[in-house]
Amino acid sequence: MTATPSSVAEALTAKLTATVTAQKKLAWTTQAHKKKLDASQAALAAITATIAASVKASAKVGVGAKAGAKTDALSLGIGVSAKTAAAVSAGVSLGVGFSASASLSAKLVTTLQSATAAVAKLNVQLSTMNAASAKVAGTRGVMPPGRAVDGAGVDAAFRELDGHLGQSQGQASALVPPTPKSPLTCEVRMARKGCWFAELVTDDEKPLTGKVHFEVDEKVFVGTVDPDNTGIDGSRARCRIIGGNGGLRNPISGKSYTGAAGVQVKTIVRDILHECGEDLSDLSDGPTLDQYLPRWHVSSGTGEDALTDLAKEVNAEWRVLRNGEVWFGVELWPEVTTDHRVVDEDWSNGALTLAPDAPDIVPGVVFQGQRVEYVTHTLGPNELRTEIRKDHPRAALEQFLSGQRRDVDYSREWPCKVITQNPDYTLQLLPDDEAMKAAGLDKVPIRYGIPGVRAKLKPGARCHLAFAAGDPKRPFAHNWESNEETVESVEFVAGGRSAGIARLGDPVQVFVAPAVPIAIAGVIHPAETPFTGFITVTTSLLAVIDGANTKAIA
To answer: Average pLDDT in the 244-249 region?
Structure first.
């Protein structure tokens, strides 16, 4: 039977309840530990309720696109090809996008299973503490005044459990459909590359959490509350919303992609977004995602950095759309018009401020002959304003920092250990640095420094990993650390030769061609008869080299 969040949470609840019930019956259980037990139970109950809400809400959500939908860039939030527009209008899925629900659910199952293991550890620590307490308490079962046993192990187990429960709550919340909100005021900042952000003020009495969707003049935005930027200001709730599920700024694991046919761009995008818990838009560019790269390496870092590196490699872009989905593809720059009144026109400084009927202008379009890079929609108490910019206000700084981030990843050398050597003499490497480690890199060629040489290496050999021109597709190994125990052989293969090399003092076999006379002088044993003349050798001789070219040493 496949484990689901509901089934794992139910089993976890039973185990934790048994632990809490048993421990609270013991007289020596401190009030501090009772509070921690209650808090863990309450946290798990909240997780279970969230999971139930997500299952109930998911059952009400319809699937499939609606026929007759508008396909212009202002309606979709992105320019699309004629083929994509026709499919959207017909209500046909293009089969390009995917939902993060399955991966989020699988992650939640894994985290809840970790919490179950943490409860088992807690039981072990409680048993140890209870055994020690029983010895001190004696037959009456009451701890003498001022006496206590060491509860450090129990406290550590509680911390581990609380960590898993907190992570589970976040993952469960991500599965719940967005909560509708009506902002009193808001400011939405949208860039052509990356996530959009919004600052919301609502009339809620409690801080907003989780995934929300809000409308501004019939345009719907879907995002997730930044937990570090939410709270109550007087009688109003204020928060920052991150477009999508809010996972693109989280760290992800590194991964190396190789294979005889290369790796498809969609595979890399899918892995990045699944780990971040984000959805890929069905409006993404299929031909771009269908491309193959000979190899690729995702270094440990944030999901948005990984997408940016990949997009740059295939001459594409990515951003989060209004509906919270990630779009990946090539810009089409459609020209658009919208009902508006110009409030301030300052194209000389790259900006135009409008009083529009709706916040429908998005980055990646052409408006009044200008390419739009950055848009800010501001909803006040009585007005809506849209600022359009030809360039991001921080474009120069972002471009500089982007280059610096790539330098950090691929323009330095990374110490590595050889895991094994492939039959084609390429290597499987495991970098020391966590940022590059992932599951290791495979099919890494060796640069020997001189032509016509190759080496057979043993596991454990040490070298440096580098990337030619800072390109993740072009890794190579060089700069070997000296350790003769990890070198099996060095072969000189210039010109296709593969003969062995004999060193000074090595025993060798030599062969003198038949019928070639060799002059000798000496005595014949055992008779010690003097002999001078010629002999002919017909088999190979065992000999030792007593002279060699010391400039070539093997």
So the answer is: 91
Do 19 and 109 fall into the same domain?
yes
Domain count for the chain: 4
Cα gap 375→354, rounded to integer Å: 11
Q: Mark whether 45 and 134 lie in a shared domain.
A: yes
Asked, as a colleague might, if the bond just before 183 is cis with ω within 30 of 0, I would say no
Output the CA–CA distances (angstroms, integers) from residue 97 to 76, 245, 465, in the order listed: 15, 15, 35
**What is the rounded average pLDDT of the residues 163-175?**
87
Q: Which residues of 6-17 are buried (b: 16+ CB within 10 A; e: fewer)?
A: bebbeebeebbe
Give the pLDDT of residue 541: 64
Question: Which domain, by its residues, includes 165?
Answer: 5-60+78-175
Whether residue 405 is predicted with pLDDT greater than 50 in this model: the reply is: no
Residue 192 has which token pair? 């052509």
CA 436/CA 466 separation, integer angstroms = 11
Residue 161: alpha-carbon gap to chain centroid:
25
Opening angle at CA 165, ends 164 and 171, nearest 5: 90
Mean predicted lDDT score pLDDT of the chain: 84
In Å, how far are 514, 520, 543 from 535, measured between CA atoms? 10, 7, 17
Contact present, 450 and 498 (Cβ < 8 Å): no
CATH code for position 487: 2.40.50.230
The pairing of strands 384-389 and 351-356 is antiparallel
Report which DSSP code applies to 98.
Answer: B
Sign of CA dihedral 88, 273, 287, 193: positive
Contacts 24+ apart (CB under 8 A), 228-231: 231/207
Q: Which residue has the higher pLDDT, 144 or 216?
A: 216
- In whole angstroms, give the CA distance from residue 1 to residue 548: 72
DSSP state of 27: T
Residue 232, φ and ψ in degrees, nearest 5: -110, 130
Half-sphere exposure of 231 (CA within 13 A, CB side): 4
pLDDT value of position 401:
45
- Whether 115 and 143 map to the same domain: the answer is yes
Q: Do 151 and 95 fall into the same domain?
A: yes
Percent of the chain with pLDDT over 90: 40
CA angle 46, 49, 50 (to 5 degrees): 85
The angle formed by the CA atoms of residues 269, 275 and 277, to the nearest 5 degrees, is: 95
Query: For residue 242, what pLDDT is reported?
Result: 95
What residues contact residue 232 under an 8 Å CB cut-off, 6+ apart? 205, 206, 207, 238
pTM comes to 0.69
Domain end point (choices 150, 175, 200): 175
